[in-house]
């Protein structure tokens, strides 16, 4: 048996910024224990399991939705906050399928105060007749039988968000309760389930003038680690869905905070690309195409910017493919091929550079690539990467023909794009020279670890942590307060550079960047390899003051731009030291964000108002001794941490550009707009 024991509490803080910060309180993870039993003639396990009585009665068969409740991770990926939101998406996807098929114009999602969810769509309504094979209503079949859904029947859906037909049934299995109301053919039908089990058959409950389906469910708190839905995550999901299904409106209501917003974009990804680009300096005009090939429909919007950042979003049947796939690879390949062909025809290649590479073309490329195909093949149920090989031919042909025609008709457009891509190639060559220079100086050679790194003793990255701290003072305290078995400390002694404004060769020459790269071990940008990551968690731990916040922002900029998979795959955290300590006699209590002042702390802590008490404000880690730092900030059993994720890449890209870019006017406007929300200045 393999046992993994993780105890953690997740509470999400939703901020209107680039990242969603997820608060985690981890207990010390016990290493997986592998118990290997070696049987011999003299071994006795249990009286019921000897050779004479081991028969078919000892084989447990999981029926219906039991396998889902026994092994939920096999069906939705995990039981953390990310996959809690996946529950909503699975139900919303069914409405989107109706929209793509042309039968639905509006989808509404409501987050209720009791943490239950309602999703309504005005599609055709789920089928309510009896299914020939199961002998149950189609509604009950959809919600209780794995791999049962209209998306398997080509006559029902030409394309679909879903793939395996497990979405609705899995949501039902992992919910405390689920209620379905169907409006269809002038009649209203209702059925209730509890933990996947129908309490009654589907029944007619009245008349209606509408068509559509309403699903009301509450995820099972005994399955999921938290039921605290993040508003920001759902805003991003609904907004993306609205971009990808033009003309269909998506309404999101959160009763917990009295939030309501409707998203509808008539021009779809054209509008999305325009919002992504915003007011950045452009190189080319925006390009848009929507062409149906023999086996798939290809829709793209792309534009080249005067930037070193790539921002490419990809989808299959409106499903986000964060890891790309064949449609992304061959979209870029077709672009690059035609650019190189035209450059060769015009004899424009620089002999030192040669043909342009994918890396050269990616700099400054903003694009949205979406394909619609009848039977998408993904590498896993969570649909992170498309695998259909035939999409290669379709996408490559469509993009290649489009860009060929466009360059023929607009040669000036080619000249602008080529000049931009060649400039990136020159920067790449300069970066290679800079990197080789660094290696010759034995800074990165053989991944020699920086001398100031206090490494941990554990071999392998499982369960290990790297703390990035501010200066030698914090380094000394953290080194004494850590658990050296699995916690490493790296001090950042010099100024962390603003990588938003810097060229790659300058970044590689920066002392602190080199220390980060060698300590983390997995490289950056195109050379990033997660297999070489030396630590499972990278934790930024700085003072709770202006300087500390600045360092955090600079580090987040670097990780977002150059080591983004660390963020996307959940490796990046921010330590959360306490802000206040209140002591009364021998009793004391630490208080963490979001508490902002002593009054808030006193309001949530029981104390005797008739006796004196002391309030201590912590502005820096240096105000704590090693024992206090360990107890409050580094001990996995008691600490709090913010896990950094990026749910809305478009907004993240924009905010990093505004707050950390070269354009001072954008930053000034941002400050003027948001100054009214500032409650406290640490000056």
Write the layout of secondary structure elements.
Elements lengths: L1 E4 L2 E6 L6 E7 L3 E5 L31 H5 L2 H4 L4 H20 L5 E6 L5 E5 L16 H7 L22 H7 L1 E10 L2 E8 L2 E2 L4 E5 L4 E8 L11 H14 L4 E6 L4 E5 L5 H9 L9 E6 L4 E8 L6 E6 L2 E2 L5 H20 L12 H5 L2 E8 L17 H20 L1 H30 L24 E6 H11 L5 E6 L11 H6 L1 H10 L16 E5 L4 H17 L1 H5 L3 E4 L4 E5 L2 E5 L6 H7 L9 E4 L8 H9 L6 E5 L3 H12 L3 H11 L9
Parallel strand pairs: 5-12, 16-18, 19-20, 19-21, 21-22
Antiparallel strand pairs: 1-4, 2-3, 3-26, 5-6, 6-11, 7-8, 7-11, 8-9, 8-10, 12-13, 14-15, 15-18, 16-17, 22-26, 23-24, 23-25
Helix pairs in contact: 3-5, 8-10, 10-11, 12-18
Question: What descriptive keywords fit this protein?
Answer:
alpha+beta; single chain; 683 residues; Rossmann fold; 3 domains; Heat Shock Protein 90; seven-stranded mixed sheet; Ribosomal Protein S5, domain 2; 26 strands; 20 helices
Mean pLDDT: 76
CATH superfamily of the largest domain: Histidine kinase-like ATPase, C-terminal domain
Fraction of residues in helices? 25-40%
CATH class of the largest domain: Alpha Beta
Beta-strand residue fraction = 15-25%
User: What CATH architecture label of the largest domain applies?
Assistant: 2-Layer Sandwich
Spatial separation of the terminal alpha carbons: 56 Å
